[in-house]
Each structure stands twice: as structure tokens, then as C-alpha cells.
Design goal:
alpha/beta; eight-stranded parallel beta barrel; five-stranded antiparallel sheet
């Protein structure tokens, strides 16, 4: 082979490798798929919310179909979804069921199997109401199981697999401590896990600064998530709330509470960053507050979300997972425009 032919061959080989590398990078980027949660009882997103998803190319919506909690004699469904609208055809709906951990305490094997059958039937019924001709690709169960409920919960998941279509995959939410210590907490018998990277701090502790996204606490749970026995998707928070304390004890959460709701200085006093005291008994967002109650505002700032994303990205799978945000509503869109959220998605799309 002449030197000219050899040089040409080398040049073509280099160009081929460069093109392949560029195509590979594009494929990698496309495998990180943005998604959202819808966690309201009434399903009726407005046109602005649909446009928000479309701009972000979010093609999956994890929709809470209903909750399960303990009844007098048997677990019962609560907060069943009411359909007022359907998602666009290019948006997949993933049914989700939230089950309280206490639901599984004391359940016998027959009761666990019966619960799985009822949950599977209810998912099917609600899915039919969507009018969609195709079956759901995936069903997700959200339960923060503990050592005392693990056996019953895992048995429930194995039973549920028999009551959903064979084409439908099962997913389960995974908390940070469960992801870091799978040998201790167990690994749910499902096809995929959804790592919930929020609610990290101690919400009931008066001294907590921000339980939704506590960066120092989050660092303690960082691990090599690629080593987890299940393939993982990732969920990040976009919500905010107020935590109500009375005499040092947490009473309840007040969703969507903002600093602008507490500007009346005749009723509220700023004690510290994001911490307020009730100066006189009053109503707030339908809740009656007593004098001396305290309110801690918690939320997610874009810079904090970017910082934690950089940390997670170094320990997460490089491709083929969903990046889900909790959750879709008008307040989220106002606080975090799509251009801002794109900067977070780009963190996970870079390699």
C-alpha cells in the first residue's frame, strides 16, 4: 500500500471513529428521559402544564391513582383519582399507588394476597376510565417499608405481579437509606426502582433547616447507585410546604405555603430564616393556628437542586433511566420555569 493510500485509510478510520463517538454521545444524552409526577386527586392539568411538559420533552407522567391505608378490619383505598382530562397521546401514564407502611403490620398471608388482588383490580378499573387502548407499560408502588413490614410488603409485590397484565412492569420507590443498605433493608421483588432523592432530613424535628432537601444529610447517603441490585430511575423534588409546630411537636404539613402568606405582621413574626411564630390565633389556608405556634417554610431552590444533581450524577447510571420531578402543578411552573429546569436535566445528560 502506498503512503498516500495508507494516509487516506487512516484519515477515514479516524473520521469513522469520530462520527461513531458523536453518535454515541447523542444516544447517551437521549437515554436520560425527563418525567413528572402528578399527585393530585383530580386529574385536570391545564394547557400551561401540558406545554411545560412538551417543552421539556417529558413523555411520562407518574399519576397517583389512589392511596391505601389501614381500615377498621382491612386496608382500604382512599383519595381515588377523578378523571377530568386525559394526557396527550404522546405522554405515557404510569399508574402509582401510595401505601402507608402501617398497612402491612399484622396482615396474614391470605390478607396480603387479597390486598394485591384488590389493588390490581382497582388499577385496571381506573385505567379503563382513561379510555386508552393500550395497557400501562408500568405500575409503581410507593411504600416506605421497614424491617417489621418488609416480608408482608415484598409478598404483596410478588402477588401483585399476578394481577397486572404480563406486559406491565412493576416499579417500587426506594428511599435513600434503602438504596445505601440493601443488605439490611432488602430489595423489593420488582423490575425497576425509583430512587426518591428528597425528604432527607427529619421533618418532625424543630431544629431541622429543610427536610425536603438537606444537603449535608444527603451527602451521608451518597453511594454508588449503579451497584444497587435493581436498575434505578431517579426522582427529584420541586415542591414546597410549611411545617406547623405546636409546643415543640409537629402537627401537620401545609402544602404550598409561601413567605408571602405570612407577611401580615399583626399575625406573624419572623424568628429566623424561614421560621415564623404566630402572634395571635388565626386561620391560614383553612387551618386554625394558635398563638405561639411556629411555622417552618421548606422548599427547593434551584441552586440547591443543581448542587445535589452534580453529586448524584457522579454516582448514578450513565444511561437508560427516567429523571422524574415531583410534582406537576401551577406553582411549580411559576417557581421553576422550564429554562431553569433544563439546566438540571443537562447535568444528567452530560458524561
Amino acid at each position: 500500500m502506498s503512503l498516500r493510500c495508507m494516509a487516506t485509510a487512516v484519515f477515514l478510520l479516524l473520521m469513522s471513529s469520530l462520527v461513531s463517538a458523536c453518535q454515541g454521545s447523542k444516544t447517551e444524552k437521549e437515554t436520560v428521559k425527563p418525567a413528572f409526577y402528578h399527585w393530585k386527586t383530580v386529574f385536570d392539568p391545564d394547557s400551561t402544564q401540558w406545554a411545560y411538559l412538551d417543552t421539556l420533552q417529558a413523555r411520562s407522567l407518574y399519576v397517583k391513582f389512589f392511596d391505601i391505608d389501614r381500615g377498621d378490619s382491612f386496608p382500604v383505598p382512599q383519595a381515588t383519582i377523578v378523571w377530568r382530562d386525559d394526557a396527550p397521546a404522546n405522554v405515557s401514564i404510569i399508574p402509582c399507588v401510595f401505601i402507608t407502611n402501617r398497612t402491612f403490620y399484622g396482615l396474614e398471608a391470605k390478607q396480603v394476597s387479597a390486598l394485591a388482588e384488590k389493588v390490581g383490580q382497582k388499577i385496571t378499573t381506573l385505567w379503563q376510565q382513561t379510555g386508552r387502548e393500550t395497557l400501562p407499560q408500568k405500575v409503581q408502588i410507593d411504600c416506605d417499608w421497614t424491617e417489621g413490614t418488609r416480608e408482608a410488603y415484598f409478598s404483596f409485590l410478588r402477588s401483585l405481579a399476578r394481577y397486572v397484565p404480563s406486559e406491565t412492569r412493576l416499579s417500587a420507590t426506594i428511599r435513600l437509606h434503602q438504596a445505601k443498605f440493601p443488605d439490611r433493608t432488602g430489595v423489593p421483588p420488582v423490575d425497576r426502582g425509583m430512587l426518591m432523592f428528597y425528604n432527607i432530613g427529619e421533618v418532625s424535628e424543630p431544629g431541622e433547616s429543610n427536610s425536603i432537601l438537606n444537603l449535608p444529610a444527603a451527602r451521608k447517603y451518597l453511594t454508588d447507585y449503579t451497584a444497587y441490585p435493581l436498575p434505578l430511575d431517579l426522582a427529584l423534588p420541586l415542591f414546597h410546604w410549611g411545617v406547623l409546630f405546636r409546643e415543640g411537636r409537629m402537627i401537620r404539613l401545609i402544602n404550598q405555603l409561601e413567605a408571602s402568606d405570612l407577611t401580615d405582621t399583626t399575625r406573624f413574626r419572623l424568628l429566623d430564616t424561614n421560621l415564623y411564630e404566630v402572634k395571635k390565633s388565626t386561620y391560614l389556608n383553612g387551618q386554625y393556628l394558635y398563638q405561639s405556634d411556629q411555622l417552618r417554610l421548606e422548599g427547593v431552590e434551584l441552586e440547591s437542586l443543581r448542587a445535589i444533581s452534580q453529586l448524584i450524577h457522579q454516582n448514578f447510571a450513565s444511561s437508560n433511566y427516567k429523571l422524574a420531578f415531583y410534582h406537576l402543578d401551577s406553582e411549580t411552573i411559576k417557581k421553576i420555569p422550564h429554562d431553569s429546569l433544563k439546566t438540571i436535566i443537562r447535568v444528567f445528560s452530560s458524561h
